[in-house]
Amino acid sequence: MAATTKWRYDRGTEEFSRFLAFTDAVIAIAMTLLVLGIDIPRPASGSGGAGVDVWAVFGDLWPQIFAFVLSFVIIGFYWVQHHRFVSALEAVDMVMLKWNLCFLLVIVSLPLMSELIGYYGNNEQAVTVYAASFVALGVVDSISYLIAVRRGLMITTPSAAMVRFQMLARLTAPFVFAISIPIAFVWSPAAAEYSWIAIWPLSLLTTRNPPEV
């Protein structure tokens, strides 16, 4: 087993495993809570829903379902990215543990933000708050990577080109969300929401030619 010094926990130690397990558990709970933001109306007492047009109910719930799916996909993206990040870590230290709590703080707030946009998707302020939460998530995630690099926590020290590549890839999504905020006020909240689709082609573009480590 790798040696452990005070406040630094190497891969293979119990503390390193707890760091990963705790992060996975919090993200899993946050992703599960997203679905609770879909508020299905209750049928009249004793009717059992007889005569209700269920497809129309789902149609009315579309904004909430959209918010749930979008938030689930983006949180899932960051979960996968976090796993890739952890796979490249040799150790974690107290600074990384504390900063990871900042990352999780934003994650656990996202079910609330998803519910907000599900109910108030046509409101510029709601779109701003939702987009700002993902800007914060992307920035915190990017800083986590820089902390790991600068504190020597990576298995292999990345080249300057790799650091630039990683930062560009990590900041693509928050950049799109940041741009969507003025779009919501200048054009419409719907236009801002449609602009979020640009995250996926831009992410593919910024990650297609990774440099050597």
Key traits:
mainly alpha; 8 helices; two-stranded antiparallel ribbon; 213 residues
Overall SS class: mainly alpha
* Number of discrete helical segments: 8
Average of the residue pLDDT scores: 86
Portion of residues within helices? 55-70%
Range of strand content: under 5%
In total, the number of strands is 2
What is the spatial order of strands in the main beta sheet?
1-2
Number of domains: 1
What profile does the largest beta sheet have?
A: 2 strands, antiparallel
Low-confidence spans: none
Mind telling me the C-alpha Rg? Answer: 20 Å
Please provide a written account of the structure.
It is a single chain. The protein is an all-alpha fold. The protein has one domain. 70% of the residues lie in helices and 3% in strands. It is built from 8 helices and 2 strands. The protein has a two-stranded antiparallel sheet. α1 runs parallel beside α4, α4 packs antiparallel against α5 and α6 packs antiparallel against α8. It is globular and about 60 Å long. The protein starts with 7 loop residues before the first strand and ends in a 7-residue tail after the last helix.
Describe the protein's topology.
Elements: E1 8-10, H1 14-34, H2 54-60, H3 62-87, E2 91-93, H4 94-119, H5 124-150, H6 160-186, H7 189-195, H8 199-206
Antiparallel strand pairs: 1-2
Helix pairs in contact: 1-3, 1-4, 3-4, 4-5, 5-6, 6-7, 6-8
